[in-house]
């Protein structure tokens, strides 16, 4: 039986199989255990020798079981380590990287176009004071044009800027003419959302102030921007319009044949010559801050446009709400390189 048991122990190739052999021989009702149990039936003179013999077998099996168990455990560990080993020649994991949002890229493009024309890019604050968002822009509290900008008011009397135009005033308070700036940023409108209205969107504001600045300079600038955005064949058109902070005021449209072969006049933004009341309001604020009055009598033009609208025209995006719904099926189509 010892020979057989040792044979079985050595042929067990798994810990489970070894456990079966162990139970078979030295378990509670194993063969060796039974032999020990039957010692009592032997005559006393045989019992001692027989007992010693069985115990010797049992020790031999215990030792063999222990050794085999150690061997199998070590083999299992070796196999696990081998499977965990790092193959340094494997190609690395391809981690998906993010990209710039379409609107960020359009703003970057616009900034590039204006920087090449010598403009400085500045940013402003999204929480504004009534004084800058409206009053200094020739929109006093009783002016009906305030209704053009549905406003999110804050509890402390301030507001979320409804356009980037207040930065015209803030910039002129701190800087003297001549100046050329563009201001990209978020603006907010308290209104029902639909395919062409969102409560948050972006604008790019432009302001040029100096001596003898004319409407011709404004037109040339907008035309240059349109060619930068849509290619050399893009044309621009101006139609009279009204903004309290411009005189005269205009809306401008671009004509551009898109890749789908369509072309029509598409309105992109508002513009005009800076109203003298804006220069006067700036000088009043400067004077109150102990600074020189330097703007009355100057000339300048300003414009404001929406990058969402440019993106919708350029790529045929039918609904402004797609930009901020975080639907990757939309965003990934327009994912630009980082940086
Ligand atoms: N601030 C205007 C708006 O949000 C856009 C605009 C129109 C800006 C004419 C200008 C301008 O600077 O001259 O509707």
TrEMBL record:
What subcellular compartments does it reside in? Cytoplasm
EC number assigned by the record: 6.1.1.20
What does UniProt give as GO cellular component? cytoplasm
Q: Which PROSITE patterns match?
A: AA_TRNA_LIGASE_II
- From what superkingdom does this record's organism come? Bacteria
Q: Which family does it belong to?
A: Belongs to the class-II aminoacyl-tRNA synthetase family. Phe-tRNA synthetase alpha subunit type 1 subfamily.
* Oligomer status and interactors: Tetramer of two alpha and two beta subunits.
HAMAP family in alphabetical order: Phe_tRNA_synth_alpha1 (MF_00281)
Per its record, how is this protein called by name? Phenylalanine--tRNA ligase alpha subunit
Q: Give the organism the record lists.
A: Deinococcus ruber
Name the gene: pheS
């Amino acid at each position: 039986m010892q020979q057989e048991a040792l044979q079985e122990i050595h042929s067990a190739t798994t810990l489970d199989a070894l456990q079966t052999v162990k139970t078979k021989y030295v378990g509670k009702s194993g063969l060796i255990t039974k032999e020990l149990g039957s010692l009592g039936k032997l005559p006393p003179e045989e019992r001692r020798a027989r007992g010693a013999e069985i115990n010797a077998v049992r020790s031999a099996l215990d030792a063999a079981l222990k050794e085999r168990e150690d061997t199998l455990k070590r083999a299992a560990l070796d196999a696990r380590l081998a499977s965990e080993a790092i193959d340094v020649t494997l190609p690395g994991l391809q981690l998906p990287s993010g990209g710039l949002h379409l609107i960020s890229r359009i703003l970057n493009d616009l900034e590039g176009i204006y920087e090449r024309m010598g403009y400085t890019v500045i940013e402003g604050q999204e929480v504004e004071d009534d004084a800058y968002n409206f009053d200094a822009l020739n929109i006093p509290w009783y002016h009906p044009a305030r209704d053009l900008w549905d406003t999110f008011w804050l509890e402390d009397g301030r507001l979320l800027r409804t356009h980037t135009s207040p930065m015209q005033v803030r910039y002129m308070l701190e800087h003297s003419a001549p100046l050329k700036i563009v201001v990209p940023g978020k603006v907010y409108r308290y209104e029902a959302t639909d395919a062409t209205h969102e409560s948050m969107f972006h604008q790019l504001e432009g302001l040029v102030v100096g001596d003898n600045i004319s409407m011709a300079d404004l037109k040339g600038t907008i035309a240059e921007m349109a060619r930068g955005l849509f290619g050399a064949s893009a044309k621009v058109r101006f139609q009279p319009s009204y903004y309290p902070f411009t005189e005269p005021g205009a809306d401008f449209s671009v004509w551009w044949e898109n890749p789908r072969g369509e072309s029509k006049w598409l309105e992109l933004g508002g513009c005009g010559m800076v109203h003298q009341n804006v220069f006067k309001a700036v000088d009043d604020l400067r004077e109150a801050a102990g600074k020189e009055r330097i703007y009355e009598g100057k000339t300048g033009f300003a414009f404001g446009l929406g990058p969402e609208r440019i993106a919708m025209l350029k790529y045929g995006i039918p609904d402004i709400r797609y930009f901020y719904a975080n639907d990757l099926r939309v965003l990934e189509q327009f994912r630009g390189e980082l940086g």
